[in-house]
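Case 501 in the screening queue. Each case pairs one protein sequence with one candidate compound; here the compound is BES. For every case the pipeline is the same: read the inputs, emit a complex structure as tokens, and attach any notable structural observations.

Predict complex for case 501.
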Amino acid sequence: MTFTAKLHSGNLVQATYPVLVAPIFEEEPLSQPLRELDKAWRGAVSKAYKSEVLSKEGEVYVMPSPLGKGIEHLAFVGMGKSSDCDTDAVRRAAGSAAGFLRKRNFSHIVFLVEPFVPRHESLETAAMALIEGARLASYSFDRFKSEKDPHVLTSADLHLPKGANVKELVPALDRTLTLTTSTLLTRDWANTPSNNATPTDLAQLAKDIAREAGLGVRVLDEKECEKTGMGAFLGVARGSRQPAKFIVLDYKPRKYSKTICMVGKALTFDSGGISIKPALDMHVMKGDMGGGIAVIATMRALGILQPERVRVIGVVPACENMPGGNAMKPGDIVHTQSGLSIEVQNTDAEGRLVVADGLEYGRREYQPDAIIDVATLTGACIIALGERVAGFWTDYEELAFPMLRASQVTGERVWRMPLVKDYDEFLKSDVADTKNIGKKEGGAIFGALFLKKFVGDTPWLHLDIAGPFWSNETQPYIPRGATGYGPRLLYHFITDWLESS
Ligand code: BES
Ligand code: ZN
Ligand code: ZN
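Case 501 output:
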């Protein structure tokens, strides 16, 4: 996964690149830097620059240089109307260009940054979006294939405008490379089948990452979870032969004024348990650890990037939901650490049980200023928002706004959903303090209302990523399968929350 991105500036005519990538907008003339190249190329650029046919979003056109030296190829990537162009459009364009070019054996590409910068956006923002788009588009999960994908993009460089302060971009570039590595790590683990990504494997990964990124780590085994009183988590795990692991990562700078805790659902496989799922597409449930791996990958980025003033705890309860002989049965009653009793009416609503114990543990052990959970929690959230938007729930504006702003920055889409107080009556049980399902209608809201019972007065936000953790289509910078949703969003959420609180 080695990938580099260098920063260049200076005269285009003297540059030597295998391919320079430039945007092409509807009804817009050749940009200034390309006019210089056009002169050197004796008009070949302007001749090829047909904005009416090439400006369609995602279109890529490559031409060789007529000179046989300097820049060898010029690639245009269609952008549509410049008035519609935002940061994510730049990211998508970079993804389209990188995807197209790597399939044609370019392993090294260079973006001409200046004409990509959308109105009202900074050079830095656009520059980083280009690198993200290119890198994220150049992923293929071929670990289990005999024939590996030979088309590997190893670098995406930036050609910056003359006079740009290259040094100023270096921290942003480091951050972008670290965060995209975490995104790809998230994809890898959510794509890996459950026989190669067990709770034990995930615990080992957490330990390796703790060493790599300088984090504290603790893994509770089933006995320790029992002692702690995690009856809901253990109830889910008991139908499987794979031992459950309760993983905790700790990013603790020398000085900090705030603590935030992230809980990530990590079902390394969710068969539904005794309330077993239909066979169709059940394999996707190998990725039901999308929230947990996103938390682990975010912790990795935090350890490497070392933001100041904030301690971050990553709590990842990891287990399988299986219908083994010892499995929990519909109607069984389990207890979380606080003692709240839960009637399990549907064993497939297991995520909320696992996350409930995670939330209680995080609050008790660390008394965080805020707690968030990230989970592939409900199919109902996909019905509500479609596959490409995550839902979030919070009663706290100081968490909602950082989440909305982070989403704007990273292009990982979110939408705020309501915590409807009076729906709580549908979570009442005849035999226990609560039950784990509400109604089918508004199903995603019941997941959130259930979790709310375990956070007391700690400011809390719940993020349901059941839709966007997976993609059934190839998108410009997202291949089919696990998308790696989460780490970029969570990192920006934390730093924004810190700055705004
Ligand atoms: N892991 C699933 C939710 C899910 C579905 C995630 C599809 C990603 C894609 C979760 O554990 C689940 O099965 N939820 C049930 C809840 C229901 C029984 C109340 C669901 O959504 O059907
Ligand atoms: Zn389930
Ligand atoms: Zn699940």
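Case 501 observations:
- The chain has two domains: 7-162, 180-500.
- Residues 253 and 306 are 7 Å apart (CA to CA).
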